[in-house]
């Protein structure tokens, strides 16, 4: 038995970009092994009015990563006198993760928000920084359960289609929120690391960022 | 080659034929011409007091501090050049912390003050350095009781019953010598020290003064503290009244 | 393997030195010669040990803490109406040996904050020194501000995470509790990897399994001090019945806006009068 600098604290996060909205949701359970540490830990970092980051994986690295990103985004805002755009944040998150390529942040991230056209944008990452812009994505312990549901329900054009189409879902905002809620309820049935509650952030150009909390199974 | 030092006063690495190091003596003058600072050791503790003339009307009171806390059991007043003094205080912090980390006990005052004197002394050994225009007037309370030390820029460090540095120090020292400090409590001595400082004021100028007071005693739980604001204010006022009273009494006699 | 059951390697092997090895050049093949890899290569030698030669040759990497030596067990903390309550026993265990029985694992940081620790006692003493220096610096600034429990927690999170980044962890789970004049009660925890959280109640090690279910059911943020104390006593009693590396000697600490109070060591009433305990050999024929 040897010591490891990593742990897996579980949790699932989902991001969906639509026309004129963006949804980022993450469960709030923090676990280690078969124990629950707390039922109420946020995994979402509201970077600014245009961008949110949700991270699953190891909590220690997540706190550090979120601190670094907060600091850099504040710095950017001071220098540029405007909040960091979502695509800019996405690129920086990729660089930040890759900078630790040989001692990675063990976090699985989603960076989501609204782009300059007011279109929802979602970036999905692996732990060492490779990333891709997609229409929707999910990460964390429940991703194997949730991703197929999203593929099936969101009716988004496939990213394999040629010529490429904008990969945002055609669902309305309320339909998409409902899908997220169902996906989390489903994930919490089978994934022991997803439960207690889910934080849902909804971003629209009109109303900015709004937060909602949905209780989940607590067992 | 004329003047005070006759060419032997340009470097700390050159002695004069009489065996003096003028640069160090000049540095001492910076302290002597600075604000008056007093430290007295009483029955149950020690007091530090500094009298500062108001430099400008626009400056907020209490913003130009000259008394600093070094550790829980020890604090110091810095006469002379304040920036130089802060270097000494910063070094004192380091010494106190490092000693505690290494030995698990608070640093004995003698050790601290000797080390600070050594620190100052180093600045008078190299041509590339300039001696510090300040000193460390230390008040502390350790297991040996209350202490007042003065570590000077030339590298000496002595322990005192009571000591004054800066402008008007001679007058204050003479007054201190007349007192029985060892029989007073810090609370009693507070007013006496204020009176000593106030009597040495330059009567001709209409400058305003602020007196900074700090103490450490059994009463403060052997913790170095600034004297609470209302008590300090009251003490200064009482001292002022008493001086006026005494002056009018002596006028009557005359 | 359960880490507690294994003696630290240098104690298990002893400081013996092989007479067959005289020059450091053999040190690289130390294992073949059945020589312990640590210790100097010749008796009473003051020459640099073989370890240095090995490390510089890249034969064996530098080693850091890989298991704790003397450990403390559960720390419990809950919020109540006027503040927070924290409890821990006083055992310092050497593996499964109850080695030290008067170890205070709850530390008063300042007038608003306390810290409790389970895990390696020496690491906790180091952390205590860090906090003490921090508070002395706070005192020296003399600006009328002191650190809040939230700030102490944030600081400890950084310390713990920083050491795990160096692959040299401080082997503790820490609990920070206290009262902040503006934001009220605070209870938070941080582990040796930097995993941290805040909640209305926290418990480390065995307490997370045995006490937190009780807390989840009975703890309320608006409960009275009396209720909180009796809940805490019940949680400690359950722990003492079930956790073999705990002793019936506890310290209870409380923080309210009026300040910190840490109790004298005390013991709980326990009942062991189960019928099966009266004559334990009754149902085991042939045993004495």
Automatic annotation (TrEMBL), chain A:
Compartments it resides in: Nucleus
Record keywords, A-Z: Cytoplasm, Proteasome
Gene3D superfamilies referenced in this protein's UniProt entry, alphabetically: Glutamine Phosphoribosylpyrophosphate, subunit 1, domain 1
SUPFAM superfamilies, per the entry: N-terminal nucleophile aminohydrolases (Ntn hydrolases) (SSF56235)
Organism domain of life: Eukaryota
Chief localization: nucleus
Pfam families in UniProt: Proteasome
GO biological-process terms attached to the record: proteolysis involved in protein catabolic process
GO CC, any one term: proteasome core complex
Coiled coil start-end: none
Annotated PANTHER family: METALLOPROTEASE TLDD (PTHR32194), PROTEASOME SUBUNIT BETA TYPE-1 (PTHR32194:SF2)
Protein name as it appears in the record: Subunit beta type-1 of proteasome
Organism: Chloropicon roscoffensis
Automatic annotation (TrEMBL), chain B:
Annotated Acidic residues bias: 244-254
Chain ranges of the Proteasome alpha-type subunits domain: 8-30
Disordered as annotated region, ranges: 226-254
Chain intervals with Basic and acidic residues compositional bias: 226-243
PROSITE patterns found in the cross-reference section: PROTEASOME_ALPHA_1 (PS00388), PROTEASOME_ALPHA_2 (PS51475)
The keyword Nucleus is assigned to this record: yes
Location in the cell: Cytoplasm; Nucleus
Keyword Cytoplasm among record annotations: yes
SUPFAM superfamilies: N-terminal nucleophile aminohydrolases (Ntn hydrolases)
GO biological process: ubiquitin-dependent protein catabolic process
UniProtKB keywords: Cytoplasm, Nucleus, Proteasome
Gene Ontology, cellular component aspect: cytoplasm; nucleus; proteasome core complex, alpha-subunit complex
Classification via Pfam families: Proteasome, Proteasome_A_N
Predominant location: cytoplasm
Assigned protein family: Belongs to the peptidase T1A family.
Role, per record: The proteasome is a multicatalytic proteinase complex which is characterized by its ability to cleave peptides with Arg, Phe, Tyr, Leu, and Glu adjacent to the leaving group at neutral or slightly basic pH. The proteasome has an ATP-dependent proteolytic activity.
Subunit structure: The 20S proteasome core is composed of 28 subunits that are arranged in four stacked rings, resulting in a barrel-shaped structure. The two end rings are each formed by seven alpha subunits, and the two central rings are each formed by seven beta subunits.
PANTHER family attached to this UniProt entry: PROTEASOME SUBUNIT ALPHA/BETA
Protein name: Proteasome subunit alpha type
Organism name: Chloropicon roscoffensis
Automatic annotation (TrEMBL), chain C:
Location relative to the cell: Cytoplasm; Nucleus
Gene3D superfamilies per the UniProt record, alphabetical: Glutamine Phosphoribosylpyrophosphate, subunit 1, domain 1 (3.60.20.10)
PROSITE patterns on file: PROTEASOME_BETA_1, PROTEASOME_BETA_2
Chain spans, region Disordered: 16-64
Pfam families: Proteasome
Biased composition (Low complexity): 16-26
GO cellular component, one term: cytoplasm
InterPro entries: Ntn_hydrolases_N (IPR029055), Proteasome_beta4 (IPR016295), Proteasome_bsu_CS (IPR016050), Proteasome_sua/b (IPR001353), Proteasome_suB-type (IPR023333)
Chief localization: cytoplasm
UniProt keyword terms in alphabetical order: Cytoplasm, Nucleus, Proteasome
The organism's place on the tree of life at top rank: Eukaryota
GO biological process: proteolysis involved in protein catabolic process
Annotated coiled-coil segments of the chain: none
Role description: Component of the proteasome, a multicatalytic proteinase complex which is characterized by its ability to cleave peptides with Arg, Phe, Tyr, Leu, and Glu adjacent to the leaving group at neutral or slightly basic pH. The proteasome has an ATP-dependent proteolytic activity.
Subunit and interaction comment: Component of the proteasome complex.
Recorded family membership: Belongs to the peptidase T1B family.
Protein name, UniProt field: Proteasome subunit beta
């Amino acid at each position: 038995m040897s010591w490891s600098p990593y742990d897996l604290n579980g949790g699932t996060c989902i991001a969906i970009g639509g026309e004129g909205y963006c949804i980022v949701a993450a469960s709030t359970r923090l676990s280690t092994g078969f124990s629950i540490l707390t039922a109420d830990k946020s995994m979402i970092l509201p970077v600014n009015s245009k961008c949110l980051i949700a991270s699953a994986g190891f909590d220690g690295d997540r706190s550090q990563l979120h601190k670094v990103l907060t600091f850099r985004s504040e710095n950017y805002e001071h220098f540029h006198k405007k909040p960091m755009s979502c695509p800019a944040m996405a690129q920086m998150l990729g660089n930040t993760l890759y900078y630790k390529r040989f001692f990675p942040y063990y976090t699985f991230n989603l960076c989501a928000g609204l782009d300059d056209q007011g279109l929802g944008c979602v970036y999905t990452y692996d732990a060492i920084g490779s990333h891709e812009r997609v229409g929707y994505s999910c990460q964390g312990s429940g991703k194997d359960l949730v991703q197929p549901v999203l593929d099936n329900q969101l009716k988004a054009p496939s990213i394999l289609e040629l010529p490429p189409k904008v990969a945002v879902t055609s669902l309305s905002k309320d339909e998409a929120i409902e899908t997220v809620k169902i996906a989390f309820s489903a994930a919490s049935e089978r994934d022991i690391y997803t439960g207690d509650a889910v934080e849902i952030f909804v971003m629209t150009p009109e109303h900015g960022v709004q937060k909602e909390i949905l209780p989940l199974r607590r067992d | 080659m004329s003047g005070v030092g006759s060419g032997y006063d340009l470097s700390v690495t050159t002695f004069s034929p009489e065996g003096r190091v003028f640069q160090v003596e000049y540095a001492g003058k910076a302290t002597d011409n600075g604000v008056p600072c007093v430290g007295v050791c009483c029955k149950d503790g020690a007091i530090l007091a500094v009298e500062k003339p108001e430099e400008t009307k626009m400056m907020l009171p209490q913003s130009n501090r000259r008394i600093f806390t070094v550790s829980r059991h020890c604090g110091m007043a810095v006469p002379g050049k304040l920036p130089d003094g802060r270097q000494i205080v910063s070094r004192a912090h380091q010494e106190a912390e490092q000693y505690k980390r290494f030995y698990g006990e608070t640093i004995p005052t003698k050790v601290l003050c000797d080390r600070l004197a050594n620190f100052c002394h180093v600045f008078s050994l190299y041509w590339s350095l300039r001696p510090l225009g300040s000193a460390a007037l230390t008040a502390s309370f350790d297991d040996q009781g209350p202490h007042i030390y003065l570590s000077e820029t030339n590298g000496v460090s002595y322990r005192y019953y009571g000591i004054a540095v800066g402008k008007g120090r001679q007058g204050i020292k003479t007054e201190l010598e007349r007192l029985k400090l060892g029989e007073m409590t810090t609370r009693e001595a507070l007013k006496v020290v204020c009176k000593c400082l106030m009597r040495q004021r330059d009567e001709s100028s209409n400058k305003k003064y602020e007196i900074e007071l700090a103490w450490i005693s059994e009463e403060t739980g052997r913790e170095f503290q600034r004297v609470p604001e209302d008590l300090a204010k009251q003490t200064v006022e009482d001292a002022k009244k008493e001086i006026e009273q005494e002056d009018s009494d002596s006028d009557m006699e005359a | 393997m359960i880490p507690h059951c294994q003696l630290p390697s240098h104690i298990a092997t002893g400081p013996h030195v092989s007479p067959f090895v005289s020059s450091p050049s053999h040190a690289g093949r130390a294992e073949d010669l059945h020589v312990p890899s640590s210790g100097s290569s010749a008796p009473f030698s003051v020459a640099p040990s073989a370890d240095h030669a090995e490390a510089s040759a890249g034969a064996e990497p530098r080693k850091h803490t890989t298991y704790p030596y003397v450990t403390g067990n559960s720390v419990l903390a809950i919020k109540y109406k006027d503040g927070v309550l924290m409890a821990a026993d006083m055992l310092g265990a050497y593996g499964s040996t109850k080695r030290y029985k008067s170890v205070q694992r709850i530390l008063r940081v300042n007038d608003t904050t306390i810290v409790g620790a389970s895990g390696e006692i020496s690491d906790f003493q180091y952390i205590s020194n860090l906090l003490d220096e921090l508070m002395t610096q706070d005192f020296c600034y003399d600006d009328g501000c002191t650190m809040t429990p939230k700030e102490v927690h944030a600081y400890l999170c950084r310390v713990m995470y920083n050491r795990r980044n160096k692959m040299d962890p401080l082997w503790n789970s820490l609990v920070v509790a206290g009262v902040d004049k503006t934001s009220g009660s605070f209870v938070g925890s941080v582990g040796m990897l930097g995993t941290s959280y805040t909640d209305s109640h926290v418990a480390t090690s065995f307490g997370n399994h045995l006490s937190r279910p009780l807390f989840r059911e009975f703890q309320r943020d608006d409960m009275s001090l009396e209720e909180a104390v009796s809940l805490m006593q019940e949680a400690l009693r359950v722990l003492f019945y079930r956790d073999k590396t705990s002793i019936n000697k506890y310290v209870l600490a409380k923080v309210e806006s009026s300040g910190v109070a840490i109790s004298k060591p005390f013991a709980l009433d326990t009942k062991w009068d189960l019928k099966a305990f009266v004559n334990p050999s009754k149902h085991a024929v042939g045993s004495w």
